Amino acid sequence: MTFQSPLHISDSLLTIGGTRSFVYHGDRIPQTGSVIVVSNHRSFMDAFLLMSALRQPIRFACHHYMGQVPLVSQLVENLGCFPLAAPERRQQHFFEQATHLLQQQQVVGIFPEGAQPMVKKTPAYDLGQFHRGFAHLALRTKVPHLAVLPVAIASIEEDTNSAVPLRLLTLFDPSEPLFQQPGWHPMIIYRRVNLLVGRPYWITQPDRDRYQGKQAKAVVSELSDYCHAEISQLLQAATPQ
């Protein structure tokens, strides 16, 4: 492992931040083949936590603006993340990049709630609706032994600060409607956090065979709903009583 490896960077940043993380059901993490990790998302620390929990680099798809902001873009590059392209090429770029990585048997990370819970502070155990791009990716990517792994990030103790005014971020991505609203981009720093690994969904040939015509919407919904339910149940189980 080199000093600048994504895993080393993640471990170092968590140590510097004084974050204590605890991993549950680690035996569910696939040890072979390509993996798509999907997780809830409230903090800039989520990518670091997931890499540290899985003990391997994860190539995260991240918001377009993160590739435009000085210093942030350098950190994103060092972590091996790939910022999404501008809106006119965003979907095509995402599928091209993620498919290439999965074909190399790498781990791709996706936060299917999108940017909404990042720019508007949400309760620690809430889970928003999922965008279904990750399900389309899993079903159209023809790589063997592909697993979709849901992981819940359950905060136990955290601090919240105001990072930057949301409208300032329009300088880097004027196409994002979320940046047009007043207020500040919250910065959530975990002090103690649980990472609960869900049961992987293994993509089978029958799944891919159904991903066509009128059946395509149904199989996409099944995969997306499965991952949402897994993460939701893990968060509910972790909710303090």
UniProtKB/TrEMBL annotation:
Source organism phylogeny: Bacteria, Bacillati, Cyanobacteriota, Cyanophyceae, Desertifilales
One term of GO molecular function: 1-acylglycerol-3-phosphate O-acyltransferase activity
Origin species: Desertifilum tharense IPPAS B-1220
InterPro entries tied to this protein: Plipid/glycerol_acylTrfase
Residues in Phospholipid/glycerol acyltransferase domain copies: 35-156
Keywords: Acyltransferase, Transferase
Any one GO biological process: phosphatidic acid biosynthetic process
Alphabetized Pfam families for the sequence: Acyltransferase
Protein name as catalogued: Glycerol acyltransferase
